[in-house]
Structures are given as C-alpha cells and as structure tokens.
# Entry
Amino acid sequence: MVNAESAVSRATASRLPAYLRYLKGEAGKGVEYVSSAAIAKDMGLSAVCVRKDLALVSSRPGKPRFGFEVRLLIEDIEKFLGYHRWTNAVIVGAGGLGRAILSYEGFENYGIHVIAAFDNSPAKVGAAGGKPIYPMERLGDVVRRSDVKVCILTVPRSAAQEACDQAVVAGINAILSFAPVHLHVPEGVKVKYEDLAVSLAELCGA
Amino acid sequence: MVNAESAVSRATASRLPAYLRYLKGEAGKGVEYVSSAAIAKDMGLSAVCVRKDLALVSSRPGKPRFGFEVRLLIEDIEKFLGYHRWTNAVIVGAGGLGRAILSYEGFENYGIHVIAAFDNSPAKVGAAGGKPIYPMERLGDVVRRSDVKVCILTVPRSAAQEACDQAVVAGINAILSFAPVHLHVPEGVKVKYEDLAVSLAELCGA
DNA sequence: TAAGAATCGATAAAAAATTATCGATAAATG
DNA sequence: CATTTATCGATAATTTTTTATCGATTCTTA
# Structure
C-alpha cells in the first residue's frame, strides 16, 4: 500500500500549499467557486496543470461552467497535506530570529505546535510570545516528554553543527535550518534548509 | 542571445545554492578537491546528476581521479548566480521577524544590501542591527534614491496586501513575502512566498 | 614503466512533468 | 427548447529532468 503523499508527483506536492494560500484568499473575499483557468491566471500556471493537480486531491469533480467549490477544495487539500495530524516542534537558538518564530502564531493552522525554544546562553532563558525559552540542557527532556520530532534551528552558523548534533541526540529526526551551513546528520534524519539570502537572491536574479 | 541563467534548467538552478552551501562547508574544513560521487553522497543526489549540473557552471573540467577543485567551483557558482552584482533591498514591517532579518548579516555574501526597514507604527521607528527603521511614508523616497528593487515583506497577514501595494507604488518590482496570503500584483512584479509553516509542515509530512 | 583504480564527460535511455487537444457536461440565454 | 458558452476530465504529445552506460583520462603503485 502506498501512502497518500506518494500518490502525487513531487512537483504537484510542492504546488499544493500555494493553491491553499490562494484559495484561502479567495474564500476570505467571499468567492464560492473558482475555475482552474482563474487559478492558473492568478498564480501564473497553466490551466491544464491546475486541473491535473486538483484532480489528484479533490474529493469531488469540478462543476462545468462553475469550477471548483472553494471551501471543499481547501478542506481536501488540507486533509491531503495532513494538516490535521498534529506535530510538536521546538526551536533551538533564541536570538532575534528564534524569538520571532517562537512568537509567530501561523503554525497552528498547519498542524504544528511550537512548544518551546532552547538556548545555550543563560541570558536568553525566559519566555517570548507566551512560550518558554529553556537552557539547552533541558532539550532531551522536553523532546522525550512531548514526543517532539521536529526542530527549527536558528543559531549562528558557527554553532549550527553542534546544535544540530545535540538535537539529534535528543531524539529529533527532522530539522529546518536557517543557518547557511551544510549539516551532517545520521541516516534517517531529514534536513531542510531555509536560506533567506538564497531566496532573496533568486528573486533578484530571475 | 540567451542570458546565462536560462542556459541551465530550472531544476539545476535550484540545486546550485545547495552545492554552494556544501562546498563552502568543505572549503572551511580545508578540503581542496571533491568528487561528484562524494558530493552526491553527502547531499543525497545521484552522482550523474551532480556531474551534469557542475559541467554546466564549472569553468574548467574536473580532474580525473581527483574531482573538482573546491575553491574554483565556489567561484564559478557564485559568478554564475550573480552574487557579484549588488542589489539593494528593504524590509517592510519591523515587527520581531522584520527586525531579526534586518539584523541578519548573511545577505552580504549573496550580493544583497538590506539598507533599511519601514513600519507604519511610530513606535517601531528607530533602528535595529545598526540599520534604520523609517516610517512608511519615506518608502518611496528611499526606494528611488537608492534604486531599491526588492522588498522583504514581514507584516501581519491582514496588512500584507496594502503594504504590498505601497511597495509596488514606491517602485519595487520583486517581493519576498513572509505573510501567508496570496498577493495580487501588477504584471511584471515578481512575488515569492516564504512560508515558514509550510516549510515545516513539509518536513513533518515527508 | 605497465597495470589498476577512480573519476570524468558524453551520449543514450528512461522517467517525470507539462502542455495540447478534444469530446462531454451543465448552466445561461434567446 | 435549442444554441451557445464556460468548464471539466481524459488521452495523447511534447518537453524537461533524471538515470544509466561506456570509453577516455590521469594519478597511484607495484
């Protein structure tokens, strides 16, 4: 048996969140139906591509002359992406970026609880955005007790590999890193790099 | 005539920054040569894919039995990606995230000067990370005077479209948005979404 | 100095993704 | 009620991307 996610191509999967963002915007404006052509135009894709993507995740077909029902489509995509399964995450590195993310409330819409941050420096320990900042020593504890699988790494580049190692030891198996450094991790641990400068540079160059 | 960037496939282009990150890591460890097989192994790609990518951007061929010279490869990729052409950028939205990014120094390695932030709220005006935070009214001014083309949007979702419009009016033609909202922009303005929650969710689900 | 190992580059094959085309369907309209 | 229009879904064609294969090159080492 294949799981739901392997049923769609990687390319499609990477567009689904964008559809979701777009559809929520339309829903917010009170739009009830959208056609694949309209989505395509607004999002800069081809209509055929949109139809094909939606066919894979939509629980019911689009209506000729109307298109797809926005509300249902949002539900279907969210269900498909698993935003209903809840996951706990922690932040390692409570500098400016770490604290900003700790205060960000947008994660809850995606099935993610960011429960705490951790930092080496005693000066950083405390709280931000109503959530606790603990000393690094407590990382293993919290990870085990709250069954945390994911870590957001917001430490300076020089501290990244060491912090990464500590997170892995603590039991984390997926890392979203903001440090612009390649991390070496054991087999089975996933790393995703979120490089702000690269994103920006791509935008400039393209 | 085609420009340099259109000479490589989109897929390759999206891997180049990752090679760069990896190569810089190796360079930092004192490694002088790397083989495509080694890169592939560490980065989770196929060796053939790596060779093909590098062949497109490397100014000189790899040496049999050694591989590629790390230092040269870094230079070639940076040159290829245009990290030598400088671009000015501004931040719109000086909340926690905006200020954190304003203080981030990693942009300079990518040919990007983040010169200032802007905010509606008078309380936010001032400075962070040694860079000024101006009231929104001054956006047009600064954009024109410093020939700013790119804007990082870090305002709350409810303010995003309006701030985006202001940026466009001011003369911005590329936006990196952290607000989880689809933005409507005129033809010719590029938008890229940096959705932290989506990145994290992809990591959890995959 | 000859044999062997590691690596490359190029060409070819396979797989994946996008785009095009077309008949079918359902609402709107005269 | 027939015609027109907007849309869909499916199949087919095209393009892009990845992977496989193989001879050539260059260093190592016996």
User: Anything to note?
Assistant: The longest strand of chain A covers residues 112-119. Strands of chain A lie at 33-34, 68-69, 87-92, 112-119, 126-128, 131-135, 150-153, 174-177, 190-193. The helical segments of chain A are 10-28, 36-43, 47-57, 70-81, 96-103, 139-146, 157-170, 196-205. Residues 178 and 195 of chain A are 6 Å apart (CA to CA).
